[in-house]
């Protein structure tokens, strides 16, 4: 069950990243983040009311608040790093955030077998290669590397925090709701500050572009929410080390989605990375 839910997390995160990437071509990135998360808040609020999840409020929700604060900050650092580029270096480095939940899992007592340790190493290498790193001829600004590592640490921290935010399914609904409300508050503050500095909140086509994109924005927000939920379940069902690595396969999903929808051709190094990621999955599942 751990492997199943963790792989579902990768699928959902990968599709959410792909959808978000397409939307940011037409709509400012911070606006995509805020609107998609606001739509997720509306849906989760209805779920919390319908299930009575608010009755499970407790101190553990501070983990959800922490995840809600760190998430937008990590995403903003990642977007800035992508702007500095090159993307072929930034994107794979962003997946190194898996080190955070893996380290937490080892500290709290997870002890993977020898095959699983091998699978972790192979899978992480596969994920990095699947991003298509540019091994030569790609000058990288030190600031881009620093911002990417900050983003990676933030992504990994969100994984570790949300796994601790609840112990029941209804409690998980409440934790995800609190996380998304915090996301909207933090992201909205960042968007306001950006506008005050002269940044754009609306696309060139005006509010009509956002209205037309509402279904896609809702999909991005809800897919991200669902991914956080399936990851939390995966981390509770089995070793956090295994759940974290399998959940970090989302760059492979994003690359395959780009191949299928946008007809982008996979480079040889990306294909090799995807193959290594599958080998790592087999080792983790059988170890």
Provide a compact summary of the structure.
The protein has 13 helices and no strands.
Summarize this structure as a short list of keywords or feature phrases:
13 helices, 287 residues, single chain
Mean pLDDT over the residues: 81
- The tally of beta strands, per DSSP, is 0
Q: How far is the first residue's CA from the last residue's CA?
A: 15 Å
User: What portion of residues belong to β-strands?
Assistant: under 5%
Main pleated sheet = none
Rounded to an integer in angstroms, the radius of gyration calculated over CA atoms is 18 Å
User: What multimeric state do the chains show?
Assistant: single chain
Tell me the overall shape. Answer: globular
Task: Give the uncertain stretches in residue-range form.
Answer: none
- The level of helicity is over 70%
Order of helices and strands: HHHHHHHHHHHHH
Class based on secondary structure composition and strand pairing? mainly alpha
Number of DSSP helical runs: 13
Describe this structure in words.
The chain is an all-alpha fold. It has helices at residues 2-23, 29-51, 61-84, 87-94, 99-107, 114-130, 142-163, 169-196, 207-212, 214-237, 240-247, 250-261, 268-286. The chain has 13 helices and no strands. The radius of gyration is 18 Å and the shape is globular. It starts with a helix and ends with a helix. The longest helix is centred in the middle third of the chain and has 28 residues, at 169-196.
């Amino acid at each position: 069950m751990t492997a199943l839910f963790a792989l579902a997390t990768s699928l959902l995160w990968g599709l959410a990243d792909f959808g978000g990437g397409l939307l940011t071509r037409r709509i400012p990135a911070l606006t995509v983040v805020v609107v998609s998360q606001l739509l997720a808040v509306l849906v989760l609020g209805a779920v919390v009311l319908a299930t009575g999840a608010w009755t499970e409020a407790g101190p553990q929700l501070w983990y959800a608040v922490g995840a809600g604060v760190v998430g937008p900050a990590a995403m903003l650092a990642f977007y800035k790093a992508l702007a500095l580029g090159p993307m072929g270096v930034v994107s794979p480095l962003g997946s190194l955030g898996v080190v955070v939940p893996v380290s937490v899992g080892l500290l709290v007592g997870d002890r993977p077998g020898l095959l699983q340790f091998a699978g972790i190493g192979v899978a992480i290498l596969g994920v990095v290669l699947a991003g298509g790193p540019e091994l030569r001829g790609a000058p990288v600004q030190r600031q881009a590397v620093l911002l990417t590592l900050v983003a990676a640490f933030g992504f990994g921290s969100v994984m570790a925090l949300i796994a601790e935010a609840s112990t029941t399914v209804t409690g998980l609904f409440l934790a995800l709701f609190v996380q998304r409300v915090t996301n909207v508050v933090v992201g909205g503050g960042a968007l306001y500050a950006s506008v005050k500095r002269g940044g754009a909140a609306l696309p060139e086509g005006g509010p009509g572009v956002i209205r037309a994109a509402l279904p896609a924005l809702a999909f991005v927000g809800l897919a991200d929410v669902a991914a956080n939920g399936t990851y939390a379940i995966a981390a509770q069902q089995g070793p956090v080390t295994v759940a974290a690595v399998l959940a970090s396969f989302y760059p492979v999903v994003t690359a395959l989605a780009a191949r299928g929808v946008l007809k982008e051709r996979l480079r040889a190094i990306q294909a090799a990375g995807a193959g290594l990621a599958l080998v790592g999955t087999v080792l983790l599942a059988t170890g």
